[in-house]
């Protein structure tokens, strides 16, 4: 049975995870096994629990305790549930809670890039995508359009940032992902595991994303670059293909999240 605790002291240290710790402090880079993330809304929290994430505490608007929060609390055993009225929680956190609840959870142990690639046919690779909204949107598209996993360079925004989790609708807990390591490399590591690599870039030798050779590859990694500059020239040069989305009305490119959805649909969603 959960411990229902009325919030009376905004400065209580138990509330730091919801009110005062930054994303980097929650991540705990020095001791990653102690890292925490915040899941927001019943659907997202449910997906995190389904993925085996361990809950530490809840922050719940009082009116939701006996309704939408109840089945989630029943799954979580004897953990603290801090509660108050909506305006009190908004003052505490600095923002309006989405559907009235947050859950602090222990970060799962990171996966290895090779684990992500085992048995996969379609992988997305994100190079220095720094906007958490874009990262979350890419995960949501990957889940919806049959991608098997996502690999990220260390310069990417953390998929477990609260905003990335929320925008993804919790699909960051459904699509396996890992940060690329120096030992694995990027394109060369994928080639070693039998993947062909396709860089999304506006180059003279770019082919359309519906190119038959690209679509027929048994194992394909779609490589997407940062919002402003795109992929590094070395990354493009190392890939087996350079691909582009055909455009009209003089538009040269799409936002990386929108481009990922189009590419995933063409190269994974349609085929499978």
Describe the structure.
Pfam families: SpoU_methylase. Residues 123-264 form the tRNA/rRNA methyltransferase SpoU type domain. InterPro entries: Alpha/beta_knot_MTases, Ribosomal_eL30-like_sf, rRNA_Methyltransferase, SpoU_MeTrfase, tRNA_m1G_MTases_N. This is RNA methyltransferase. Helices cover 32% and strands 21% of the residues. It has 12 helices and 12 strands. It has helices at residues 16-19, 23-27, 42-50, 70-76, 86-93, 113-117, 132-144, 162-168, 187-192, 212-215, 233-238, 256-269, and strands at residues 3-6, 36-40, 54-61, 80-84, 101-106, 122-126, 149-152, 177-179, 196-200, 207-208, 220-224, 241-244. It has a 7-stranded parallel β-sheet with strand order 8-7-6-11-9-12-10. Helix 7 packs parallel to helix 8 (162-168) and helix 7 (132-144) packs parallel to helix 12. It is elongated, with a radius of gyration of 21 Å.
Short key terms for the protein model shown above:
272 residues, alpha/beta, seven-stranded parallel beta sheet, five-stranded mixed beta sheet, 12 helices, 12 strands, 32% helix, elongated, RNA binding, methyltransferase, tRNA_m1G_MTases_N, rRNA_Methyltransferase, SpoU_MeTrfase
